[in-house]
Amino acid sequence: MGFVAVGKELGSQSPQSWGLTQWLQRGDHADMGWMADSRRLNILQVMPEAQSLISLALNYYTPHPQPTQPVYGKIARYARGRDYHRVMEKRLKLFARWLEEQQEGILTRYYVDSGPIQEKPWAERAGLGWIGKNGNLITRQFGSWVVLGEVITNGTLTPDNPHNAHCGTCTRCISACPTQAIRAVDRSMSSPKAFAVDANRCIAYHTIENRAEQLPSALIPHLNGWIAGCDICQEVCPWNQRFAQPTDIEEFQPYPSNLSPSLHELSNLTDHDWNIRFPASALRRIKPAMFRRNAKAVMTTRP
Ligand code: SF4
Ligand code: SF4
Question: Which of 73, 121, 182, 284 is deepest in the core (most CB within 10 A)?
Answer without folding.
Answer: 73
